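Most newcomers find our protein records easier to grasp once they have seen one. Sequence and backbone structure share a record, each on its own labelled line. To make this concrete, we reproduce a full record directly below:
***
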Amino acid sequence: MDIQKILESDNSKGTALEITEWIGRDAEKMDVLMDIFLNADYRLNQRAAYPLIFISDRNPELFKPYHKQMIDHLDND
């Protein structure tokens, strides 16, 4: 699945849930989404945040490796 391409074309709840299901508990797939969330342009950053909401409910342990990066990211406009 090319998450970036999907996020560029659609930002629906269905798409966010599809990405959430695809990631499941896979840390490597989570890396792909978090890279988009932390490093992409503003629009993709926002779109990547949508599936992260569902992932945080289902598999919060996937966020542990990113705590510091996410906190540091709060300083970005």
